[in-house]
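Hi L.,

You mentioned the student needs an example of a multi-chain input paired with its predicted structure. This one should do, with 702 residues in total across all chains.
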Amino acid sequence: MSQTGTIAKKDALAAHPPAPPWAELDASCQLPVLYFLLSGLAWLLVGTLLQFEAGIRLLCPDWCAVCPAMTYGRLVPAAENALVYGFASQMGLGIGLWLLVRLGRTPLVASGLIAAGNVLWNLALTVGILAILLGDGTGHAGLEMPAYSQWMLLAAYMFVGIWGVQTWAHHTSGPYYASQWFLLGAMFWFPWLLTTAQLVVVTFPGRGVLPAITGAWFAGGIQHLWLTPLALAAIYYFIPVITGRPLRNYHLAVVAFWSLALFGGWSGPARLIGGPVPAWIVSAGIVATVLLLIPVTIVALNTGPVLGSRLGQVCENQVLRFLAVAVFCFVLVSLGNALNALRFRAAVTHLSLNEWARGFAYFHGFVALTFLGAAYHVVPRLMRRDWPAPRLVSVHFWFTIVGLALVVIPAAVDGLRQGNELNDAAVPAVKIFDQLRSVFGWRVLGLALMSAGNLAFLTNFGWLLIRCWTPGIRSAVALFIDQSGKSVTAR
Amino acid sequence: MNRGPLIFFGILLTFATAWCGLVLVPHQQLGDLAPNVSEETGQSFPQARPGDAAQGARLYVSLGCVACHTQQVRPEDGGGDIARGWGSRRSVARDYLYDRPLQLGSQRLAPDLANYGERLGTNPPPYLHLYNPRAITAGSYCAANPFFFTLRAVTGAPAVDALRLPKGFEVASGWELVPTAEADQLMAYLRSLRFSVALPEAALKLVEENK
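Structure written out for the whole complex:
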């Protein structure tokens, strides 16, 4: 089938008659969306490589020890910030903007300014990551980038957020889709989360444990009011569009949205359990974390039957595969989080590698796989051309899945041992930690596979761009030669 | 749902509840927490760190020691921290009045350091461990910090604070490794980590049998 033929057929499924001018709409957002996706992917590679290097430092702590920029304690926050703000935020925004245009059937407002915001965003982030590696991190959990780069990031976001919400409001026909609620929520919550945290934690920190409480609220917010709704927006669009089947129990989606909005905001302090903060704050966080099972269940009810009835397609379709694993990770990790928020479980798993594994699986399993799958759908439409190397998509998928399993499963399992033994004073601490080294070995191996997978995606992406742009470049070169030829003969 | 303004209002409202509950109210509840003055001894706790320890805290933050080391003692019914001898009572909000930024930590890949100064007692500070943890604990993955030490030729008698390196870690003969001022500051900070002082909200629990 011809490339444009596949795309047109898929678009027809999404279309309500009369078919909107998809090509024009796509063209309106091509530059910023492409830019966000490409820089997001680059940051994913950077972040995974930093995590990989951090893993190496655990296995060979004396290698490169003279260089403080490569010390474990700096690599870890640098990687986290690169992944959250560089990769997930940018990919999520890129896909979100594309969805706003498609669902609203309205061109993107001020796409040039949004692209400018993207440039500023990457600049802010580069400065922030380098600052962490060079020792200028703030030391506030989750907000390690120095104030100057965070404010720059916020300014950059304003370019995107303001025009994004404008595009949302230009929505032309019919009721708003679930994806649109999630996108509006995320785009509104993010700047408030970041501004509050910047002011109260970094710029004018309160006394004692106050920054930790606000920081926990912020961390919960970034997870459930920013990354999760961005990812769910994609899931609620792509699964019905690609399978060609409506979501089941779609009327419940509105409950999912409002319960996520409410409990997501309150869930953060569950991560302070056992910590030196007033008990009611932690209890509120625990209750909210358990109640987050409401939106999770609804997402499962909405998407599960559709995916289940199209298992053959799920196994074959390049995009659906990613999304199906993402939904699976979302449900599984959320269940684990709810269970381990309970005090009797938290006594074992809190602060252990089991908790770390759940965070990793939520990010790299749910959030990242959603965006990666969505990007595989969006980019060919923006460029009006299919992926040059479909094999590389499979390579990316399998490397990522196997890598993910190698990182998460040993850590989750051995984390339980770690937690149990730490609570048993008869086991010497040094022995407990020493045994974690096999987990670190699996982690390094898994991260190497994941990095290779991301490299496959970047290769495919670059290849596609070169193919699309060669005619343009060729004619430009021809023109140049022609012109210079003329000027030579003129002499 | 097809009313834009209504959706927007709901989004604002749900956010505002958590914002008030988790940002505003805690600031009112804890905003004016003050050090406790003991009735028996008249001493106030906690106390601000002296200059070199405060400098050391900066180094601790900058190097990200918190990626592996927590600084929090969980209550007895919430984990085995006290039984393990990491503290004689749970940590409470007041203990951290002068910690900025907080280094509570979210990963325990290493021993908790909330009361490290207490554990250290009158022993010499762990300079050798700072230089290379493997010189003390074989196989440890604790980060080495050789950049806190200067390698220099011995002139006359060896310096009193020169590292006594065990076998396998020696430097060439005629040379010695001496701690920089920064190493001293980090040690002062580690020594300052202690909160074995009873507070009205948290009594001490004696765990001699476990020590």
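You could point out the following to them. Residues 199 and 205 of chain A are 7 Å apart (CA to CA). Chain A touches chain B through 88 residues (CB under 8 Å).

Best wishes,
N.
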